[in-house]
User: What shape does this take?
Amino acid sequence: MLKYILRRLLMLIPVMMGVTFLVYFIISLTPGDAASIILGDGATEEAVIELREKMGFNDPIILQYTNYIKGLLSGDMGISYDTGKNVSTEIIARFPNTFKLTVIAIFLSVVISIPIGVISATRQYSIFDNIGMILALVGISMPTFWIGLMLIILFSLNFSFFPSGGMDGWKSLILPAFTLAIASTAGITRTTRSSMLEVIRQDYINTAKAKGVSRKVVIRKHALKNALIPAITVIGLEFGVLLGGAVLTETVFAWPGIGRLMVQSIQTKDTPMVLGCVIVFALSFSIVNLIIDILYAYIDPRIKANYS
Amino acid sequence: MGEKLLEVKNLKKYFHTPKGLLHAVDDVSFSIEQGKTLGLVGESGCGKSTTGRVILRLLEATDGDIYYKGQKIRDLNSNEMRNLRKEIQIIFQDPFSSLDPRMTVSEIIEEPIRLHKLITNKNERFERVLELMELVGLSERLINTYPHELDGGRRQRIGIARALSLNTKFIVCDEPVSALDVSIQAQILNLMKELQAQLGLTYIFITHDLSVVNHFSDDIAVMYLGKIIEKASAEELFNNPIHPYTKALLSAIPRPTIDKKVKKIILKGEITSPINPECNCRFANRCNFTEEICKMKEPSLEEVISNHFVRCHLFKG
Amino acid sequence: SSKPEKQGEKEASSGDVIMKKDLTIASSADIASLDPQGHNDTKSERVSCLLFNKLFKLNTDFKVVPDLAEKWSQPSDTEWVIKIKEGVKFHDGTEMTANDVKFSLERSLTQPKVQHVLSGVESIEVVDNYTVKIKTKSAFAPFLYTLVHAGASILPQAYVESGDNFAKTIGSGPYTFVEWASGDKVVLKKNEAYFDADNMGQMETITFRVIPEGTSRTIALETGEVDIVEELQTIDMSKVEENEKLALYTKPSTTINYFGMNNEKAPFDNQLVRQAMNYAIDKQAIMTVAVNGAGIEAKSVLAPTILGYKESNYAYDPAKAKELLAAVGYKDGLEISLWASGDERKRIAEVIQANLLEVGIQANIEMFEWGTYIDKLMKGEHQSFVLGWSSNPDPDATLTPLYYSESIGGMNFSRTNDKKVDKFILSARGELDLDKRVATYNEFHQYIMDKAPIAPLFVKNNVVGANAGLKDVELSPQGLWNIEKIHY
Amino acid sequence: MREKVEVINTDLKKKKEDLKKKAKKRSQIADVWKRLKKSPAAVIGIILIIIFILMAVFANYIADYQTDAIKMNVVNRLQSPNKDHWFGTDEFGRDIFARIVYGTRISLFVGLISVGIALTIGGTLGAIAGYYGGKIDNMIMRVLDVLLAIPTILLAITIVAALGASIMNLMIAVGISNIPGFARVVRASVLSVKDQEFIEAAKAIGARDHTIILKHVLPNSMAPIIVYATLKVATAIMATASLSFIGLGVAPPTPEWGSMLAGGRNYMRDSMHIVMFPGLAIVLTVLSLNLIGDGLRDALDPKLK
Amino acid sequence: MNNKVLEIENLRIQYVTDDGTVEAVNGINICIDKGKTLGLVGETGAGKTTTALSILRLIPHPPGKVVSGFIKLEGLNIMDLSEKEMEKIRGGEVSMIFQDPMTALNPVICVGDQIAEAIHIHQNVTQEQARQKAKEMLEMVGIPGARMEEYPHQFSGGMKQRVIIAIALSCSPKLLIADEPTTALDVTIQAQVLELMKELKEKFQMSMLMITHDLGVVAEVCDEVAIMYAGRIVEQGTLIEIFTNTKHPYTQGLFHSIPNIDDRKAKLIPIKGLMSDPYNLPKGCSFCNRCNYAMTICETQKPEKIEISDTHFVACHLYKDNLDFQLRQ
Ligand SMILES: Nc1ncnc2c1ncn2[C@@H]1O[C@H](COP(=O)(O)OP(=O)(O)OP(=O)(O)O)[C@@H](O)[C@H]1O
Ligand SMILES: Nc1ncnc2c1ncn2[C@@H]1O[C@H](COP(=O)(O)OP(=O)(O)OP(=O)(O)O)[C@@H](O)[C@H]1O
Ligand SMILES: [Mg+2]
Ligand SMILES: [Mg+2]
Assistant: This one.
């Protein structure tokens, strides 16, 4: 198992290289000149040219990229073009916020969607099932920022249950996390439902029933664990979607996360900052998926056998 | 003695698995004469299907030679192989999963003809399909049905029709009846026998059901964990089984009679894993007659009686 | 028109006088840097103003008044001698000296973001402990205005050289730095030892909170989570106004929004076409749609509050526009591309698009992302565009970058290349006599609006929403001002 | 014993002709359609989508593009739904109903094309990876992992930033960011099919790889792909809304639901209808696509009758 | 004294689907005496599993529905019981072994726990005691107790089937229903498992309902045999009666379809045609379209049960007027 984890972690290196290279390359394709961004509005042409030379912006992309990677390997993520801040400090300050938000959101959507999925499956075609599925669909068809604003109007303005934004205390987490969760709820609910439907038709469920296990226990103990396996995959993928989708939620709820930082950095063509953000995104996404794979092993002994 | 249509020499097929090298087929040799049937029996996982697949080059062999009409199959390039496929065919165990669920009966039967451009005229091709359907006893009103709409027996007939749609001479039958009810099984077995007589087909008949193989085959090879452990004519094998495993196998068949009860030989354990097998008799740990040597050395296949080969230390020459 | 208008004069009912000692201000974006020479944007400037002092500052009427400076004189056209107040202490207790001034001003020349601010300075000399002499490269009338820029803040040399990199920023201002949570908030605390007793901070703490989304900002104000919203979404003005507990403040800004044309490219290389544009656009409609009426029509290249302003007499007159276009041969209409970036400019562009359609011009809007937008504009790839410009009080700070021929490739997006314009700009810049300078600018306005390199649209109001209990909220043309004076 | 073929004493040839005709008649599409019709949810979905498609096609007859959908009318701005403006007017005084009707064209188009892009590229890669397995599989999937690890929104923003904000580029951006997803789904689906015996049967009759992939593997792995695709059409429409939110939507005044929604958000407190109707349009489209997707999944499975 | 463990009377079960109604079980009567084994034989789709599931009241509903009839366990009509009471019976009084050992065990729960669960539910013991008992059960079916922490995938097919047997027997049920317990196994393993089941049946004094399509298995383990065709029992009798005095043409067809291992030249005589569409059973005898003896009455009228002896009856028109009718050999 440990060997497997190590191997997976090693696999991250080429993936990260790929990610950084791709992003570096795409950003370099976008118009806009880093030197003039660094210098700001009032810069003279000479100053721009001089800085361009100094920072090596005239070098071929590959060279610039290798220089960046060299820095990265020695732990230096560079300095923001836009604000002059140290990229790693900035990311360390911001990333935990996004991570916290995403994790809570995933938690919320799991807590909401797994029971709905399970109940829907056990009562296939019932009213609960139909309404549950339609709600799930409506959930994904509403844009995040729209849901966010509606929730603020409802719960902050009209009822003053929660703050409208910002980041102090658990109360301020609820609305953004919930907003973020809604979109992924649909996917997880539907997967849970369909895998549950699959599982309850399996022979071992009949075996359990024939043992005299009560209906509830059959669902909880025998079916759910098996049905969770596909659901977990979706949860892992949703995590990535949420990380990416946090941008809008962070904007609406004034959440000082990394999504906003990234969008802002792209807009100012702040390459080191964008790369920094992308690296943590990609890393956390990959690590979460690794964790998911390890989780599989815990749920499913057959998979565990394959890892060792 | 007829002419050897197919000859397999020292065939090996190993699979790489996470746990190690799986010896699915390990040094198997046999030959079949034109118009005859070779039965390949053995327990689940002993490598019967793999043998069949390797012969057809659906899987590439790890080692060994396969001669078809004296031609080394493994040396053919992909075009030559495609040509050869007009003559050698396969019928699968599961008549459901071996038919594309999205094709109608006529499409399935037509496909090989179309692919090999045997008949290019559409109408003639259609005639041929109807002809084949009649040959295997499928009513022509079924042309437009999908396999799932049919029962196992009819589905298996489609598989047979497909195998016959080319200039088929040789068919690997991979447990063609084991998924069927006895009443249907008998229909199919009779059909296959008839076709053999009519068209001069040669079969390799893979099965785990000894009563079927006895009824169907001229020669029988018994496989155990990738190896042939006994090989003889059907008559000889059933009258005079030599290898302890063959004996146990024969005795274990449930017989639908109440008078002639045979004393069962109950084997101890279960089949051992074919992954990285040790160099001893592969049956040793289940055998009721294991001796020291069985655990030391791998026995070789010896001709104990004329045309009766056995791989066992206890019976030599 | 420079008095802030507090609309809907309301006092919090005397029963519940709010005794809060901390102020939370919602702003739409985070500050870029705590280093006053490391940024060039108003959000950061608002914070540095509380943390640092400059030699001079602007008052709410946009006049230059001394801040650290005690006395100043101009021995020659290119020399300024400035004496700072004695006994000014930095937050760490050290005293400010002329060395700090020299160090700060020289440093500004080396900092990328602000190196342009004092680019007219040739040298700085320390005369004595509290006096410096600054030489400019040439006679430069608006020199004092450049000293009010945050980039000319006076920093403690010792601290800056300690390499702390502004992590625990030390300045001399009325507030001291407590915390900056990136993307979230900046917290400041009152500087009890501030040197200027008249301008002491009023609240114990001030928190700047970042709330990017307009609607969320208003709601935060309504729920009392913040006390002031510095950029109130204009659609919410009526809401704030109608709310008993809130007060609305508006004041015209110096931000002028304009429809720019590429004077080098057809059809806008033709003066008549450009004039036609000035007639074709319905500025009132733009204001309604873009800022819900919170602004004043712009009639020249500068905001009215700016020195030497004189308005043109274009009015919305599609018929006239058609006539002009017909005169140049565009009877059957024409097709142009119209560039924009951002939500508000998109709305403006949409109205322009509709206006132009009336006179037979089909404008295809192309949206860009900000960095790309500016880059492409600099390269002159555009035909026409929508942009805003917030200027310093001195007209030169607008005119040189925007209309001077050498700024082509820079901010001169209209690519105005007119000898006479250049001459106006140069002579006004060197003119130290205020009246003469004003006269030159008056003339310039007339000339340039006849050339019509752009079509001015409107000058946006600064709109601030605040808790009704807050007192002494003052706006300047630059927006929320004198934050240190605000209190409950 | 052979099953007796019913022989009818009429002209045998004629009967065969009939059979031939019948053989042609029964296409798979017709079959799927027959099964699809049985699911009420799918039928509702289809009806809704047809309404939207009709709206897109016959937009000209419903409202006038020039005078209703893009003509500004500041006097009438922000009107609530009323007799003249069924869905009210937006901040420019444009008729929201007309804009939604015309928006159907763009939004459906964007959704379908971007998914089309992702499906073709991702699908091909996934099919190759799944079918051939081994090193090829590993290589393709690792490259796609890279793409997957980059947040969608970043990919979309940078692509739009690099190429400019046009409908085409929007579709490319959304399309590209969906490639890894499709590749994964197709690959998984191909993997589940490729080991079935009928694939081996096709090999045994001498079919070439590409024939096998196109005629046997893909048709049988269609169900999850179709479901995923319908879901993604929905997400693609939403992605345009998100991009509009950060200022990179389609060029105005083109009516497009996502940008209508994003642009109207500042007004939602007083003029709910500005965001409600485009939102509703998106919800209904997404809903109906999903209903169809679910229905199709069942209908495409010949085993489920 | 009533010696009957199971009595089924006039049981009719339907599956109602969109495509129509399947009369899966069509008025069958079964009874099993204490300690006896009844073999239920029939082709795919004959309704064997449905019958078995109905005894545990586990017919999936919808689409399944018991239309009429009753099932008595030791005289107790289970149709009247509540779900709670039914749970007591399942695994306690009546156990069931499913056909496919590969899928009948929960892959994510270790085998020990799966056995212990049944014990814990039905016997008033602690978890620990249940696990102890589970270990004993495992050893009883010939698997080392040490392996109880392992998961099903670590077991071979035969071992899994033994685990399932262990589960079924763990609470000493009065009736064991075995639904094709050896069909998925290799012959040598099948022999082991059948041997084990016979042994344990003796030991526990159980009654057994053995469902199979393999007459060979029947010959080995059953005391009585019921031949099922299209939801009906067409012939029933003691083992000897069925094998030596075959009455129903279908039963005879089954015997003739099996290759004779001792006579390899013997020709197979298959039953012609196929089982009727379950959605659309013939009006008369369901078998009439495949029957070599079919008469006109067979097409229109359902055959009655005809008693050949006390223990042997057949449902066929051939014997209606002529009890001594002999089938052609
Ligand atoms: N593609 C493969 N990869 C790895 N192992 C394989 C593969 N195909 C077959 N095997 C293994 O090879 C061995 C022989 O398999 P094969 O299918 O030939 O057995 P068989 O005798 O046909 O069994 P059955 O009666 O169950 O069909 C088995 O242990 C099987 O697990
Ligand atoms: N859940 C269900 N829904 C609809 N029809 C069903 C269902 N289960 C069984 N049937 C039908 O009921 C009939 C009897 O099925 P059953 O499973 O009892 O047969 P069986 O004798 O056990 O067959 P096998 O030998 O294949 O196990 C069949 O025609 C089958 O198609
Ligand atoms: Mg096989
Ligand atoms: Mg069954």
